[in-house]
Design brief:
The structure holds 2 protein chains of 2 kinds. Chain A has a 9-stranded mixed sheet, with helices on both faces. Chain A has 3 domains: 11-156 and 285-336, 2-Layer Sandwich (BirA Bifunctional Protein, domain 2), CATH 3.30.930.10; 159-270, BirA Bifunctional Protein, domain 2 (2-Layer Sandwich); 340-370, no CATH class. In chain A, 38% of the residues lie in helices and 18% in strands. By secondary structure, chain A is α+β, with helices and mostly antiparallel strands. Chain B folds into 2 domains: 4-87 and 175-204, 3-Layer(aba) Sandwich (D-Maltodextrin-Binding Protein, domain 2); 89-173, Periplasmic binding protein-like II (D-Maltodextrin-Binding Protein, domain 2, 3-Layer(aba) Sandwich). Chain B has helices at residues 13-22, 52-57, 68-74, 115-124, 140-143, 158-162, 182-187, 189-204; strands spanning 4-8, 36-39, 42-47, 63-67, 79-83, 89-96, 107-112, 128-133, 149-154, 165-174, 176-180. The radius of gyration of chain B is 19 Å and the shape is elongated. Classes of the chains: A alpha+beta, B alpha/beta. Chains A and B meet through helix 7 and strand 8 of A and strand 5 and helix 7 of B.
Amino acid sequence: MNGASHRLVQVPPGVQCFLGEEARRRRQIEERVLSVFEGWDYEEIIPPLFDYADVFASQALLPRTYSFVGRDGSLLALRPDFTSLLAKIAAGRLAGRPAPMRLYYSGEVLRYEPPRAGRQSELYQMGLEHLGGDPRAADAEVLAIAAECLDRLGVRGFVLALGHVGVFGGLLASADLDPATLERLRERVEAKDAAGVRAALPPGLVPAEVGEALVRLTGLSGDAAVLGEAERVLASCPAARTAVGELRQVVEALSAAGLAAHLAIDLGEVRGLDYYTGLVFRAFAPGLGFEVGGGGRYDTLLARFGRPMAAVGFMLGLDRLALLLDRQGSRPSAPPPTAEVVGGAGLGPGLRRARERRAAGARVRFEERG
Amino acid sequence: MSLTIALSKGKLLAGTEELFRRAGLPFPASEGRRLVVPLDGLRFLFVKDMDVPTYVEHGVADCGIAGRDVLLETAPDVYEPVDLGFGRCRLVVARPRGAADAAGTPIVRVATKYPRVASAHFLERGLSVEVVRLAGSVELAPGLGLADCIVDVVETGRTLAENGLEPMEEVAASSARLIVNRASYHARRDDVASLVAALAKARSA
């Protein structure tokens, strides 16, 4: 077999094709999630599939972005995420619209991903952005919406793990560290490796109490009681305390609204796209080894597009939701009703009969020989 | 406690068993041939050492025990909450006794079971590197002309010496780590927290 004919059969790594039952199931999941977004009065935006490469703000996504040169020589990129696109639209096309704005999207993003757990190059994301308005109310609202989506889908035992980039960032705001040291510390905090954090602390450059607090971050996860402990551990760092205070307000609001059982605090969660500035969260559930979605606050992104405005958003991965629901053994969707076979008695009359049955709402299969 | 734990039957097994016994946790009787062993609510998976992180990252196992050397090579997206303290060894660059410094050679040919660690180590030093990936008996490679040097784990250094090699540089220190799947850590918080606490306590006891 020569190379060309081989490629006609082979599927490139990182993309998938969904058939029949699986395709139907994905549509059902999407419809259910989007109905929750609509139910909270969010407005759908259908952004373009590609835009100028500069629009996509995340340095972290840059090496994974499919970019190409347009006919006029400009550098373009297939969207690696929606948030930058929605920020651009909110600051540009919707510049006259008063805040807060509530926008949602549903579609594919494209990222070059090395093949790995649950990762594809073509990812289907459903998400929303809450732009402007009171930040704590917006944080609580989007978390409540994320919880409702998972609940409506029948996901059992889900947990929203909440962190805040201002804890790690606040602790190190005044330390003058080179990027490599900072990244090593961040990476060890992320791994919850207390001994590793201690070993990565540069001698003399970080005050002892800050170093101790960084080590303790690796263990500051659990239920809401962690927040009290965090306030003690972070006592000497006002910026990090402020971050914990913001989290506390959101957690108290969500707990009062009946969501306490679905919340976890994880102050060692320091990953995420680099445009996040505040609350960050990830959704986990038993049966899937990685998050089904997540989000966070990005208060500086819109300024890039000329309309400084605080914002928060999240997305759920359709591919991961489908996998999770499958692993949790949730009922597959009901098969479509059996079609009525209509036709015969000549092509014209047969087709007329089929159209009549369609007008009456029947599922028909047109068979010209009847 | 109801968790799936991935372990390797390699060099960490004895230390793992001892630690589990000290922590008062169940552990399967040795020399079994089964690869999946349920025991008192826990489920043990016995897999290759390089595969332990994969099982944990995918969430097939909630937790696992892996050497830091293996974690550096596989770079899994997992938590590493406890340094278990046993299985201590060093990842080193070793080359034939008396060989010239690698800085003078245009390209370093390095034989290793740790291709990612080895290439990162030399590239960070501005050296071009050709990694020769081997599955074992790495110490033979320089003497037979397959490579200029090796990157491998050493405990005592005796195997190196027997093959005419000497350690030149330490790449990293290694020991056994408890690793935890990120979803299990949150979605099965109570079970994971009690395992972490039990092993951390037994480790320092």
